[in-house]
Amino acid sequence: MLEGKALEITLTAANSAAQAWYGYDQGVVSGMLISPDFIKVFPETEKADIQGITASCFSLGNLLGCLLAAIYGDRLGRKNTLRVGGVVSAIGAVLQFSAFSFPQLIVGRVINGVGNGMLSSTCGIFQAESCASTRRGKLSVIVVLHNVVFYCIATWLTLACSFASGGWQWRLPLALQIVPCFFMMTFLALVPESPRWLLMNDRTDEGLEVIRRYSGNGLSTSDPIVQDEYRSIKGAILIEKQSQISFISVLTGRDRSGHLKRLLLGCGGQFMQQFGGINALNYYFTIILTKNVGLDELLARILTGCNATSYMISSACAFWIIDRFGRRILMLTGLSLQSLAYVMVAISVGLLSTAPFEKQWGIVAISFLFFYYAAFGCTWGMVPWVYQSEVNSLAMRTVGAAAATSTNWLFGFVCTQFTPTGIENIGYRFYIIFAVFNLAFIFVVYFLYPETANRTLEDLNAYFDIDSGHSTIIPIGDKVAKSSKRPQEAIDAEASRVAMAAAADGKAQDVAVEHAEDVDNVA
Known about the structure:
Mean pLDDT: 85
CATH architecture: Up-down Bundle
Largest sheet: none
Family: Belongs to the major facilitator superfamily. Sugar transporter (TC 2.A.1.1) family.
Distance between the termini: 43 Å
Protein name: Major facilitator superfamily (MFS) profile domain-containing protein
Number of domains: 1
Strand content: under 5%
Membrane topology: Multi-pass membrane protein
Organism: Clonostachys chloroleuca
Shape: globular
CATH class: Mainly Alpha
Oligomer: single chain
Main location: membrane
Low-confidence stretches: none
């Protein structure tokens, strides 16, 4: 039976395989849409609006999958939700790579999306609920990073398959979507259910045993480390049950735990990720290089692969910086750099057809497209997925993560659907839209998004409590909301929760309170 780090690694592998599906689809579709055999089988995809439908219908399926996860996720549990999502995605993959008619292709992409929506809205929760707070950020980054890793793999794979004859050009890459499903199912068989989900469903003995296994080092369930973690989680659950209200009350903001605000923060992060412009590029990178920059198909494919590799390396950097610098600094830095990148892309694409140095402006455009991906990868590519799994309470975590992921897919659909038409009709001006969005989002993050790095999930419950004294709009001098270090008030609140849970168990509990500085890395 796996314990400690071995168990955490296996859990991370299972959730990484679940997250890989999304990135793989983006990489495959980007190359598939310009494949000669694909266009021969589906000639309607040469039209800009049909290209949009082919790519974006996957997002609509994901939206439905997120809604299903929100409705049934807490009943099924984290593991079973992932299993169902994997089976549905595999069915969609089979329909896609065997398609000879456009309707079958679209149905397959929608079904694939439904399964992926269940996977993407659940794997982050499963990871966050099972890992220690000191490692949660890094391990969550590894999970999200596999989105980018498989985007990179798919991009190079479609390049390799472009030299094949006939349907192998695009059917083989689509068929290989099933591989992550196999690995996910294998790893899921080796890990237990989320300890927080077990305790929330009054499966106390199982939850305590899972906490012990993740603690590692051969600890027993009676060890103080295991007991303190158990009591901290149980104390938070008791507080939530005492203040439990209806979902309608949550939506109207009539609750003491700030559920509506937390829900909107998670959804807002995904909204800003999409309107930061990533899916305006991911699905159509090769098309942008051929139509806007004027490259031939082979060179466009090669540069797409090089960009995907650079994107992957940049995303990997988040592993070392997400907990050190915190979520806020990464979000603010990313928005600034992304806005600059889109401004320069707009200028260079606009000058391509009129300037005397046409080739040089093409190089500038390509360089800043690479720059955008590098900036996005280590900031907004990672943070919204981690943030949405942290910010919601245990009672609302499934619904909150599903709502945030649904927001991603809904506005991903909008961006994906209208990008080909926008590029065709307004050219370089289309990129200015995303430059303005990125600039505006800087103020949203600075004044509305509190730091979540190095906090336990129960710390965040205490922060958003109505009696905490923290306002919705973050004051400039609020170090607790901005510091990447765990604040002293969170440590004190944890001591109170442990004592409360111990009292509920009928046991006295002496709690040693540590002291922490919370003034580093304030943004």
